[in-house]
Amino acid sequence: MAAFFKNLLKNKVMLFMVLPGAIWFFFFSYLPLVGTIVAFKQYRFSRDGFWASIFNSKWVGWDNFKFLFSTSDAYTITRNTLLYNIAFIFIGLVLSVAMAVLLSELVGKTIAKIYQTGMFLPYFLSWVIVGYFAFSFLSMDRGMLNQILGWFGAEPVQWYSDPKYWPIILIFVSLWKSVGYNSVVYLASIMGIDKSLYEAAMIDGASKWQQIRNITIPMLSPIIIIMTLLAVGRIFYADFGLFYQVPRDSGTLYSVTNVIDTYVYRGLKTTGEIGMSTAAGLYQSVVGFVLVIVSNFVVRKIDKDSALF
Amino acid sequence: MSKSKKSFSFALAMLTALTLVLSACGGGSNSAESDSSSGGKDSDKPVNLIWYTIGTPQKDVDKVMAEVSKYTKEKINATVTMKMVDWGDYAQKMQVNVASGEPMDIMFTAAGGFDYVQNARKGAFMELDDLLEKYGKGIKETIDPAFLEGSKVDGHNYGIPANKELPQQEVWRFNKNLLDKYKIDTTNVRSLESIEPLLKTIKEKEPGVTPFAMDKNFVPYVPYDYVIQNLPMAVKLDTTDYKIVDILETPEMKQALTTMHKYYQAGYIAPEAATTGSTNDLMTSGNWFMDRAQTQPLADNSWSASYGYPVVSTPASDPIITNTSVQGSIMAISSNSEHPEKAMEFLNLLNTDPVLRNMVDSGIEGVHYKKVDDKHMENLPESKNYDMPSYSLGNNMLLNLNPNDPDDKWDQFKKFNASGKNSPILSFNFDSTKVATEMAAVQNVKEQFWASLMTGTVDPETYLPKAIAAFKQAGLDKVMAEAQKQLDEWRAANNK
Hints:
heterodimer, A: mainly alpha, two-stranded antiparallel ribbon, 1% strand, flat, B: alpha/beta
């Protein structure tokens, strides 16, 4: 106990700085954990407020989870969620790192800033707006893509009813929106790399490519691993806006656009069963948790210092 | 050691302080609640009623409610606070407000808004049978009894429906400018098939116009009433055996969808119809020829007025009284209301007292509107700060008439209401609790196939069997069996 207080005392400044964040987590992440109980209940309103509603509602065991697994949709949505997220993580990683390296190598700093801002901008757009951007390209009768196809004498394509194009469209749109933001993270850590390493390499006659491969990438690897581990933890969460707004909720595209989040939304928007949506959220978090633990374990096996914990 | 204790207790103090601040933020509503509850039943202090309703929040709501409160304080010793929640947010925000026990007394609910039947079953609303008997005499006298009967859930009233048009009737609406330009006759128009020559004419002569305007919610009319809106379970309107069928397997729907697909391929329907959220921009620009809509008496006038060009309509179905039409606008008393009696007295007054009803609807006389004669009124420029949806605020038949309305407007409504035929399943409300898992799956299948089939985007020859199979696989048969069981029990209980 004494050691504990001694430790507190020693790190009081640091601990004090962590305090606001810790409080935030307590109130907004730990306290609501109690609410997961709703996932096992048939939620009914009670006149005495939220807590009374929770405690008076009937226990239903695992019933609320059944809808996630009851049909063949379960396979489709799990596959879509996983594959899309894997694609986003890996293609996104490669592109973001590549962009960051390119930006860091640009000599004209003004030009670099302009590129950076231009790439950063889409990150701040809402999915609804991005959805309309996409629509202006893909609309059947007034879309830009069909106009261009028309110039080459091709038949207009019904983009919103043909699933085969959508995996590419979705990946493209998602990357367009996120790559700029992620590359800034990598760019920041590239800036932090000791310049003398590059100077030494240049004196030894290393080419640009060799410098990137042997200095930049290895120095970036800890942050790459952290970012990837964090992304893996959210692999069961799909970006709702991307999968709902961009395909304009078109039913014929569901085989390639339906993910866990949109499935839950569509299934429950009319019945409003809070218990079932809580169940879906709990399921996603548990799987995400397991995946983070497992992938961290793998990272630890390979390189102990790079692991998160 | 002492130093460590000091810093620890400092941290503790900070934590406590923060907790206090946080709880003070959350507690604002609590204090309001205890405040109003101290107003007791028969004490002299007026009771404050909190009223949630749907619509874009208006600037002058508080100003008007202050005026309303003066009036109601005199009449029933209660004041009113109105909280408006915007159209698109209403269902979701109310879900949260009710779930978290936000203090409220009266709230708007409807088949389409914050779902009336489901929330009544979940316990969001107070059961009103006794209150209605005791404090709602005026309501019982004024409102068409079909409304109160049709809005019963499991035999009890949970809300006061607004007195307005009772049946729903589908009509074909036409852009009259185009009708006149090509001298098109609409007297023989009624069925979906009968509009074909008209669409053809427009398609040929007006290439820039969408002949048949629709959004993704369009469903061709078939003479069935749906057990749940937009799920494929339905009962035929002239049924004798009360059998619930899969609407997609009926010959009527098959034929309608085939026709729709024909129209789609002919280019009468916009190519993006299945993903179009609204046809507002077509209506504004006037680049449409016809569409289908639900009507009420004098609807042509109000459509023409709001679009700025003449619109005419002709019937596409009989007027039918269904659950959806009866539950189109309801005011319920929240189950956590501190003053249900006062709330009921207020609802009674709102539905019987023209002064109060018009004040709530149009604002303050002389500020937001002025009387033209004893029946008609005219909006003043200030009315832009208090522009309320009339249908959601109680008895419509007490309202002042707009300048262009004929004197017998409400008599026309009464006539229209009397012309309605009851749907066989009027006031049967399916309880889907037992099949909640299947409902979620069925709902997803519906979202996948519905819009593209109904707008004719896809060929029913190949897609209809696919949709039927997908619904079956999702458990529609189980849902239908449960619904049939409940319907049979309901029939036995109601001697149908």
